[in-house]
């Protein structure tokens, strides 16, 4: 039986030495890490550097130090936009955070029914371009709004519309952070407090709120940053009310004043960078808070509390779903609000927009390419960074670059791309306005979240797989193909869907980068709205939303398949 | 430090190995020879550098300085894939998405062998580790002990010259662990593959190894057979770490005699210190003679029996010399002796320390 086992000759390790002139496995790994780092430098670091250096130059390219910043600070209209942006973003944050907190509390700490429906409803805005919420509000409360009387004479077009639309749009982002924070806190504290007969009010103020405070801070920064850097909503609903994001657009696209655009970009960078560091700190504290033996909290039924939270959540969910439903409905209406008969006429985009449906197919191409190329780059990059032992400094550098986009709003990255890929000295400027630049910009824009998702799933694999594979004389790429990637398939799918959905809906970065034949669906919304074709704008927004939701549904189905059939090994 | 005088060149040789983590010295100048076909255990408390040494030998975490020879070939700077070893980790690191057969055959596929030959080899290996019919299962469907054996089969698949095991049994419960000890030992002797196993469990090392390498704080304290390590620990650390050992403060009174309090003891070996020097006298609890102590026996004294605790096959007692001047001395008394002699708490008995069971260590304490 085992005779063969003992007779099997040991393979000479010298066999490997005969491959002396071939390049070694370690060198391949090094080259791959270097390639990933080089790509990240090209798509992240250099555009940012272009932005920073542009802000220190005059229009004709001379170095002028901080002159542009001085000019900025002494131009009253620009400073007014800054003030506008700050208070609008501040107010939107102040409105969104408490609502999202109670909603998250209801999802994590109550026994109210239909939780998954409420979660889905709250996440709806993620699947639509930000400006779709603004279009819906215009249908409801605008000059021809159905519920215009609710405005009591005030104008929607301005801060009120911006704040309302931004609140809807940023709600899911706050909610995701807060549900995580609340589900992390330790159930044992609650149970101990219950046992001591602590009142519910005291428990809330002494345990729940402090436990979630890092989540609250983090969510507040994220919402503030999203709002202050969003371009679509103020463009559609802002009227004469100027904010930083629209200023940046006007300076760069309208007046071709690149240096001033760069200054606005840097001003926009500040809250995002602050948010980035606060978030890092918060995450460290949050995990420290959660000891290894912490147990998740199992809420006990409490009719009164559950009923109240259910009512609240239902109202919020209804407001969100109704808004987007109105946008979809409006897109089928012949002449809002005077003739509510239904029609597909608004979907004949060629009537109002030269590119017609072309924008949509461009968006699909962008989203598909971003999903495929972005996911490949992100996952392979994360694998090399996490699992290859040598080249520590290079790996650290690549990781740093991968984390940077988190701190860079899309609008700012878009500006950087304009300055870098449009520069006359740059041989890569042939790509300006092409799908190539749109794809790499979108990959860069959403790199960090995808990178963290990939790292998280890679970290769950046994750290010794690489060692085992090497001891069996099989290269790391064999391991990657046969073991790592298949095990991480669900995370890879998550990343691809994330990339796809965001590529479909993004406006802020690509608005600076599209060319005549690469206009995207989301950008044509802006243009159709500008041309007064609100219904067609809403129609395009609805098409995007339907596509994104469709992909998400497909994702859920595919994940079920992957877990069920293809990954039989996951079953015990 | 040589494992034993051998005529053959050692299969594995490590010279002057050093490894730092930042400012922390994990390995200090390690020299080691492992003869071909032997089963060697690296034994030491957690954090002493066993895994670091094993991983340096494998090339997984290269050393800062020093030379490693495997089968006479200098592999100090070779990547792991160029070193001819198989390895089993504490976690087993089985590929969860591959069947047991695919796991075991993972290292065989690239050798341009016909598929049937690979299948046969995998079946042989599974039979070898006693799991002949489990090839189509996934690792998640196996028990811990079965997973361990699959990991072993996978490590042996390419017939490596060197088998490295990092705490391969410590994730298992006590019963399975003891059964697998014996199985692994038998398998190793059958294949005669040079094996290094890392463990912090002295019992495991004593039961399985041909040679034990006792490590502490990044240095090798002693290399020897289990018997040598147990009977003649080279340092107080080894004495304390392997088995139970009582240490008594003593003063040298002659070339082969020491004094503990007011009691004089004869020792079999040279005290190795000048008269008057403070030393530590060490002995194992089971070496204390409690039965049939002749009136003129060497190192005989009267002691009061206290702190009896029943430990199954024997009782641990704490003996306090009637003459005083010594800390209580742990002594193991077999259940038979307990019954035959009717030993009871508080009783005063004559006991003796056989001179050859006593070890004298320089008092290195500050
Ligand atoms: N990658 C590392 N970085 C820093 N310190 C390490 C690293 N690996 C091991 N050490 C330290 O080196 C010492 C020896 O570790 P190790 O060889 O794993 O010990 P053990 O004998 O338990 O296997 C420990 O103090 C450990 O903390
Ligand atoms: Mg260890």
UniProtKB/TrEMBL annotation, chain A:
**Where is this chain's protein located in or outside the cell?**
Cell membrane
Q: Which GO terms describe its cellular component?
A: plasma membrane
The reply to whether Transport figures as a keyword in the UniProt entry is yes
- Report keywords, A-Z: Membrane, Transmembrane, Transmembrane helix, Transport
Q: Where is the ABC transmembrane type-1 domain?
A: 82-279, 360-555
What membrane topology does the UniProt entry give? Multi-pass membrane protein
| One annotated GO biological process | transmembrane transport
- Where is it mostly found? membrane
* TM region positions: 28-52, 86-105, 117-140, 160-182, 203-228, 258-278, 309-332, 366-385, 397-418, 430-449, 491-514, 534-563
Q: Cite the InterPro entries for this sequence.
A: AminoethylPonate_ABC_perm-1, MetI-like, MetI-like_sf
- Keyword Transmembrane in annotation: yes
> What Pfam family does this protein match (any one)?
BPD_transp_1
Q: Which residues form the signal peptide?
A: none
The UniProt entry's sequence similarity note says: Belongs to the binding-protein-dependent transport system permease family.
Supply the NCBIfam families for this chain: PhnU2
Q: What is this protein called?
A: Iron ABC transporter permease
What species is given as this protein's source? Methylopila turkensis
Its lineage opens with: Bacteria, Pseudomonadati, Pseudomonadota, Alphaproteobacteria, Hyphomicrobiales
UniProtKB/TrEMBL annotation, chain B:
GO molecular function per UniProt: ATP binding; ATP hydrolysis activity; transmembrane transporter activity
Question: From which domain of life does this come?
Answer: Bacteria
UniProt cross-references to NCBIfam families, sorted A to Z: PhnT2
The biological processes this protein is annotated with in GO are: quaternary ammonium group transport
One family from Pfam that matches here is ABC_tran
State the organism of origin. Answer: Methylopila turkensis
Protein name (record): Fe(3+) ions import ATP-binding protein FbpC
Q: Which UniProt keywords apply?
A: ATP-binding, Cell inner membrane, Cell membrane, Membrane, Nucleotide-binding, Translocase, Transport
GO cellular component terms, A-Z: ATP-binding cassette (ABC) transporter complex
Q: What does the sequence similarity comment in the record state about its family?
A: Belongs to the ABC transporter superfamily.
Where does the ABC transporter domain start and stop, copy by copy? 12-242
């Amino acid at each position: 039986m085992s005779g063969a086992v003992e007779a099997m000759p040991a393979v000479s390790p010298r066999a490997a030495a005969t491959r002396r002139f071939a390049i070694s496995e370690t060198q391949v790994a090094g080259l791959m890490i270097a390639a990933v780092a080089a790509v990240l430098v090209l798509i992240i670091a250099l555009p940012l550097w272009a932005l920073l250096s542009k802000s220190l130059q005059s229009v004709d390219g001379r170095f002028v130090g901080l002159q542009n910043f001085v000019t900025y600070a002494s131009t009253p209209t620009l400073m007014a936009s800054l003030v506008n942006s700050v208070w609008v973003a501040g107010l939107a944050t102040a409105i969104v955070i408490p609502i999202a907190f109670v909603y998250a509390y209801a999802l994590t700490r109550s026994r109210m029914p239909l939780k998954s429906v409420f979660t889905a409803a709250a996440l709806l805005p993620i699947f639509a371009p930000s400006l779709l919420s603004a279009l819906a509000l215009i249908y409801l409360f605008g000059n021809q709004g159905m519920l215009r009387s609710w405005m009591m004479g005030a104008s929607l077009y301005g801060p009120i519309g911006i704040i309302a639309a931004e609140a809807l749009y940023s709600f899911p982002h706050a909610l995701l952070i807060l549900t995580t924070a609340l589900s992390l806190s330790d159930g044992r504290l609650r149970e101990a407090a219950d046992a001591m007969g602590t009142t519910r009010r005291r428990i809330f103020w002494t345990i729940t709120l402090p436990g979630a405070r890092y989540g609250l801070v983090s969510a507040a920064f994220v919402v503030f940053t999203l709002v202050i850097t969003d371009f679509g909503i103020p463009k559609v609903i802002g009227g004469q009310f100027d904010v930083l994001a629209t200023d940046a657009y006007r300076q760069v696209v309208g007046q071709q004043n690149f240096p001033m655009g760069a200054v606005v970009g840097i001003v926009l960078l500040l809250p995002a960078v602050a948010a980035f560091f606060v978030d890092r700190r918060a995450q460290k504290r949050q995990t420290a808070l959660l000891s290894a033996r912490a147990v998740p909290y199992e809420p006990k039924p409490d009719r009164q509390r559950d009923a109240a939270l259910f009512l609240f959540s239902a109202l919020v969910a209804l407001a969100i779903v109704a808004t987007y439903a109105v946008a979809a409905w409006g897109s089928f209406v012949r002449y809002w609000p005077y003739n509510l008969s239904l029609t597909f006429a608004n979907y004949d985009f060629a009537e109002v927009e030269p590119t017609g449906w072309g924008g949509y197919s461009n968006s699909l191409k962008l989203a598909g390419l971003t999903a495929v190329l972005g996911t490949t780059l992100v996952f392979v990059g994360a694998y090399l960074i996490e699992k290859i032992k040598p080249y520590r400094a290079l790996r650290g550098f690549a990781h740093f670059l991968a984390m940077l986009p988190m701190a860079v709003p899309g609008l700012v990255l878009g500006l950087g791309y304009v300055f870098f890929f449009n520069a006359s000295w740059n041989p890569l400027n042939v790509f300006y306005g092409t799908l190539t630049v749109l794809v790499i910009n979108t990959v860069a824009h959403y790199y960090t979240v995808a990178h963290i998702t990939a790292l998280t799933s890679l970290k769950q694999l046994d750290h010794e797989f690489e060692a085992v594979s090497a001891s069996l004389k099989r290269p790391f790429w064999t391991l990657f193909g046969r073991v790592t990637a298949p095990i991480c398939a669900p995370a890879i799918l998550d990343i691809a869907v994330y990339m796809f959905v965001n590529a479909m809906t993004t406006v802020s970065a690509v608005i600076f980068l599209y060319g005549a034949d690469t206009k995207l669906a989301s950008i044509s919304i802006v243009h159709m709205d500008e041309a007064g074709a609100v219904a067609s704008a809403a129609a395009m927004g609805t098409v995007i939303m339907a596509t994104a939701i469709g992909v998400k549904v497909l994702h859920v189905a595919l994940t079920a398949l992957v877990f069920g059939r293809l990954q039989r090994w996951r079953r015990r | 430090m040589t494992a034993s005088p051998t005529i053959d060149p050692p299969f594995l040789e490590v010279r002057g190995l050093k490894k730092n983590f930042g400012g922390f010295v994990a390995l200090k100048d390690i020299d080691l020879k492992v003869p071909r076909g032997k089963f060697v255990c690296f034994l030491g408390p957690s954090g002493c550098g066993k895994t670091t040494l094993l991983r340096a030998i494998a090339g997984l975490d290269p050393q800062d300085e020093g030379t490693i020879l495997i089968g006479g070939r200098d592999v100090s700077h070779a990547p792991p894939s160029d070193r001819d070893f198989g390895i089993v980790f504490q976690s087993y690191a089985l590929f969860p998405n591959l069947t047991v057969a695919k796991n075991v055959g993972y290292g065989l596929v690239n050798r341009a062998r016909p598929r049937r030959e690979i299948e046969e080899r995998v079946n042989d290996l599974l039979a070898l580790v006693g799991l002949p019919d489990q090839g189509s299962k996934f690792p998640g469907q196996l028990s811990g002990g079965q997973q361990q054996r699959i990991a072993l089969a996978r490590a042996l698949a390419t017939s490596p010259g060197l088998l490295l095991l990092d705490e391969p049994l410590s994730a298992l419960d006590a019963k399975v662990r003891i059964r697998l000890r014996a199985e692994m030992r038998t398998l190793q002797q059958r294949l005669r593959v040079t094996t290094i196993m890392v463990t912090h469990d002295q019992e495991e090392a004593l039961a399985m190894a041909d040679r034990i390498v006792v490590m502490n704080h990044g240095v090798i304290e002693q290399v020897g057979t289990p018997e040598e390590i147990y009977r003649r620990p080279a340092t107080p650390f080894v004495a304390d770490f392997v088995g139970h050992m009582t240490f008594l403060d003593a003063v040298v009174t002659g070339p082969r005699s020491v004094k503990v309090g007011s009691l004089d003891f004869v020792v079999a070996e040279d005290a190795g210190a000048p008269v008057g020097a403070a030393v530590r006298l060490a002995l194992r609890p089971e070496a204390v003679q409690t039965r049939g102590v002749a009136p003129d026996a060497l190192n005989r004294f009267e002691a009061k029996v206290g702190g009896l605790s029943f430990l199954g096959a024997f009782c641990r007692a704490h003996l306090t010399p009637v003459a005083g001047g010594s800390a209580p001395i742990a002594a193991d008394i077999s259940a038979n002796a307990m019954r035959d002699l009717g030993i009871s708490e508080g009783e005063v008995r004559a006991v003796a320390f056989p001179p050859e069971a006593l070890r004298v260590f320089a008092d290195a304490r500050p």
